């Protein structure tokens, strides 16, 4: 499987296409900000018509899981789910199936001046190019 991941301000998936606003950035902030992950999954023919486990988590520059306040206290910043891609009628056997997906990310209070990475895992597997990294600008100097 192949995954393309793009950081953006906002995105939508409509009729199998991605519509992206403010896409392709890698520096933002400081301070909480709204963002989205626009992704395109290229599912091999033989992996269609079965569920796939999706796990996306945020790590810092040291590879440590980022934690944020939540309803049950501090928890890892993680998105989990499943997806399944069906083969449409008439598709030539062996052709991979493109599947777009958008995940809106609410504002997260992250430390300024640091680098973070969204890591995408599918069925427990990941690749280096299934990541989207970004840096936060340094915050204002203390007075």
Task: Describe the protein in words.
InterPro entries: DUF6941 (IPR054221). By secondary structure, the protein is mostly beta strands. The chain has one domain: Sandwich (Immunoglobulin-like). The chain contains no helices and eleven strands. The chain has strands spanning 2-14, 17-23, 27-28, 35-43, 51-60, 67-70, 73-76, 78-84, 97-105, 115-122, 131-136. The strands form three sheets. It has a five-stranded mixed β-sheet with strand order 3-11-10-5-8, with no helix packed on it. Strands 2-1-4-9 form a four-stranded antiparallel β-sheet, with no helix packed on it. It has a two-stranded antiparallel ribbon with strand order 6-7.
Search tags:
mainly beta; Immunoglobulin-like; 143 residues; four-stranded antiparallel sheet; DUF6941
Spatial gap, N to C terminus: 51 Å
Number of strands: 11
**Number of helical runs?**
0
Spans of 5+ residues with little confidence (pLDDT < 50)?
Answer: none
In CATH, what is the class? Mainly Beta
- Give the tally of structural domains: 1
Strand content: over 45%
Structural class designation = mainly beta
**Main β-sheet: number of strands, strand sense, barrel status?**
5 strands, mixed
Coarse shape: elongated
Strand order of the largest sheet: 3-11-10-5-8
The helix-strand sequence is EEEEEEEEEEE
Based on the coordinates given, report the CATH architecture: Sandwich
CATH topology: Immunoglobulin-like
Radius of gyration from the CA trace?
17 Å
InterPro entries: DUF6941
Pfam families: DUF6941
